[in-house]
Hints:
The protein is mainly α. Among the domains are: 20-49, no CATH class; 78-154.
Amino acid sequence: MKSLTFAVLCLASTTVLADVYKCIETDPNTGERKVTYTNDRRVKGCERLSADLPVSSVPSGNVPKAAAPSSAFPKVSDELQKQRDADRRKILEDELAAEQKALESARKALAEQEDVRYGNEKNYQKKLDRLKPYQDKVEQHERNVEALKKEIADL
């Protein structure tokens, strides 16, 4: 019985069509016209659109194709592009070195904090809570190093 009810509801939902109304309002202060679409028939001053008209904001299939690149579009010579790639690699390698240094520093700080146990940390969870920011920092630097290595490998 439930499946029959569900099937009837599914069929009914696909066949129900709501009327769509186009409303044009004029702002009294600026005189600017604003077009809105609604399915609320209680709004005054709206025009009912025919059910045959498409009411989609998605453009139809007859969209003009993008223009081919013109000859005026700036091109970069191969030599200049190689120079740019080399500069980019150098910048990434510098960033990688700085990030590895920061990772080592974060690991050292975490190790120092792991060796310390304060008197108010009889509950082990308190120690874990205190170490969490240090662990997060190490993980962040590890992710950064990994991302930089991947970016350098993709060059």
